[in-house]
Amino acid sequence: MPLWSWAVPLLAWAALIYASVHEAGGLILILMAIVLLGTIVAAVHHAEVLAHRVGEPFGSLVLALAVTLIEVSLIVSVMLYDTSPAGSTLARDTVFATVMLACNGVLGICLVVAGWRYHEPVVSLRAASSFLAVLTVLTISALVLPGFTRSATGPIYTTAQLVFVASASFGLYIVFLFVQTVRHRGDFLAADTLDDADPPASHAPSNKATALAAVVLLVALSAVVLIAKKLSPALESAMRAANVVEPAAVVGVIVAATVLLPELFSALRSARRNQLQTSINLGLGSALASTALTLPAVAGVAIFTNEPLILGLSGTNQIFLALTIIVATMTLGAGRATILQGAVHLVILALYLFLVVIP
Question: Above 90 in pLDDT, residue 72?
């Protein structure tokens, strides 16, 4: 276990203790933000240890669930603090940003890297169709349909609708996990290829290393939740000071990018090994887990606190969602990928990010 991987979470807890005793000024908040990023990287590192122990496709699943747990923790922390209208849209904006960053950013960069190194890397058509079919249903039911229902005013679900959609989304995700890990596990495995550069580790972690990784992972995730709660007021104030037109959308992008950054590193390592299928499992798996698991979590918080939960996307973002799904279907439907397809996804992401800042 590298020294930094457990020292950074301990440093995060030390910063939390200091901030609870003393008033946190600007410098302390900046240091806490840096420590937060380091703690997230440490958490994903230990999740990777667990993933390496259980093997594929369970490994990609462990990473996706760890990242989603961090994301849900950040969203819930901000929701409980921020009772303004911006707080009621954070879950929607963060989930949508995660889908855009995962399906266009992670996937696009990995396609460019793998396509540049291996010309036309192979992907599994069955795995791709499974990912995209489930992702289409989950994103439309969670982020598009609320704008077309008539039982409540605005792009929201009633309590009964929210419970039903959250339960259906979670149930569909469970079925997908059964298919991915048990029934059709082979469809989600990367093809065996030889690459002398940067080969994977030849042995799995020991029982002791796995147990330590699990403990430190819990410590790191707890620190992430508490630090996020401390930083939420400062982040909201910074958005207001910068006169951002849609602060919740920008915060959603920041949250999604923060938790997906370590996932991107893992996906890139797989792409460099000519294991593009593993990269796809990581990227699309994160988008799936974010949509399927975040909705039930924030729905429970919204119902418990009796706060509104705005889910419906604007017309512009609905176009971006449809464009992403259509292009991803064409990209992965050929069974082979090139750098051109990666560039297309990166252009979609660039357009989305530009219009978030300048709507």
Answer: no
